[in-house]
Amino acid sequence: MIARNNLLAFFREQVKKPISYRELTERLRLRGGERKPVKKLLRDLVNSGEIIKNRKGLYGLPAEMSLVTGYFEAHRDGYGFVISEKPGERDVFVAGRNTLGAMDNDRVVVRIDNTERRDGTIVRILDRAHTRIVGTLQVSRKASYVVPKNRSIPFDLSIAPDDRASAQDGDSVIVEVLSFPTDKRPPTGRVVKVLAEPKTPRDEVEGLIDEFHLPRRFPHDVLEEARALHAKALPDEDGGGRVLRRKDLRTLNTVTIDGEKAKDFDDAVSIKRTAEGYCLWVHIADVGYFVPWDSALDREARSRGTSVYFPDRVVPMLPKELSEDLCSLKPKVDRLAFTVEMHFDERGNRIGQKFYPSFINSNERMTYTSVRKILIDQDAAERKKYQALLADFELMAELCRAIKKIRIKRGSLDFDLPEPEVILDLQGNPESIIRAERNFAHMLIEEFMIAANEAVAEHLEGLNVPNLYRIHEEPDPLKFEEIAKMLAALGIIRHRRLIKPGDVAGLLKQLEGTPEEAVFHSIILRSLKQARYSPVNIGHFGLASESYSHFTSPIRRYPDLVTHRILREVLLKKHLSDKRIEQLNALLPDIAFQSSRTERHAVDAERAVLSALRVWYMKGKEGQRFSGKVVAVTSYGIKVRFDEVYIEGFLHVSAMTDDYYRYDEQRMCLNGLNTRKRYAIGQEIKVRVDRVDMIEREIVLGL
Questions:
Q1: Mean pLDDT of the chain
Q2: At a CB cut-off of 8 Å and minimum separation 6, what does 598 contact?
């Protein structure tokens, strides 16, 4: 029986031109009983995009046919980019006429038409990201169709009279796609739900949960499995044929440090001074012990991919019996953990690590605010309250500063990006939207989790064990040429010297605290690619890490759970068989793609809810004046962030009636032709709220 990797190796090493199925069976010398499994394997590889079947029925590798497999990132104007699944490859530009009806996040095969410009044509859609679409029903005498709310979807859906349900002209509806667009026919759909106009912010969030097709409840078999686990007492050690014994760490001083509203506690930390420097224990909830491969819980967690966080609720990856209780590292109770024990020297260099399952008992459930009071504010009352843990917190602060210094020195990007926090009243209405506090305690936990993630990734990579990596590719060199021009025009750098990715960290440090800092952050962020998951490690550019995996949040992220299982298997078996490595190599690419997609979907949903709550907060505030700061400038106008509340509005260039304004692309500013007024990023400005658009979720400003 030929394995997946062996068949791919055959194509890579021995196939010099597209071949037929018959030629393939002859060259592999397959007997009668071997042909059917190979035909199925070939079909699976075609469906996954790893092998291409052309119009003549011949098979070959995508790269050899100038084809790239990846996901489509659609733009509202119809064009888009294909982000290659193969790490390190440049994105492929696809003009609107060449998208084949692909939608945002669809998995596609693109043919590269021009290698220098890197543009192409989508030739096949492997996997559709959207099976349901939210839009507005429009009914005429001749036809009914739905106009999608998502502007990146470049077509309307035709609705047959029998498929309209009870929907009327102008209704907001959810449509199930019956057929996707082709060259010969438009897409069709069926109305599955009419969305009522939201009367409250809570109604709006409910509508967005429908719009993003997020699951509201767990299937019955998943809940039954979770309840059965919850009813069991905690074991003394892992069961099974071979025992992986747990280390008892219940006598260690251990704390969790999270936000005030947190309910699922993934991680806890312990620390001690050693002769060499420090010993840090990072304890992670042992979700993998409770959720084995291919269980009902596992299949559901993989489908969801991640927990989705809204201001008033969480759409969890795992049922609350696990996420908020059995797996959560709550204080004063025994819990099963997976521990990363790391040893550091006095300067913060990691000099050793161990991994093992453990028993822990957290002494305290600490908050970021409380730890900040202890370490930064030197608050007497708080320090007295946690007297028994003071020495531990002081040691943590020492180690945190040391390892962060090393991370920054190696070129890690340290963006201190502000995040909004929505304050809700008892009825669920937004009371205020503020800039979320990010203090030293956040940084402390962040540094410790980065260290643990790196230690696990390096260990598994060193053993040549297949793993799921968190990768972040370097920016496109062509984008850095444009950045150099912009920075030279703004006076941030001298001359138009070539900027390399390695220069970014130094420039960030150089501009810290200056008016140009915000401009530089904006320029760099636009050039960076999204981090994603991959079974191929190419490093993490943002963290300047050669090997990085997600390990520290298995309650809320599926890739972390996968890495837990692989590490457990390695510790238990010492050596993985060739068959098991083959299985993991076949499994991980699909998990990486699915996890990256669900992560992007969750981020989009969280942003949509935040936008909705912003306009609900501003509703009724038309005519009010705000002072703010320009945070983005385009040829259309400027985006302004208010000082009083953490909300942004848009001032369209047509509302700037005191002059004619022209956009300077190099300096990223708007210049008045007669008044010589100039609007640039970072500039203070006073604006008036002219209109709050509840449908488009936009705050329209005037001067």
A1: 89
A2: 304, 305, 306, 558
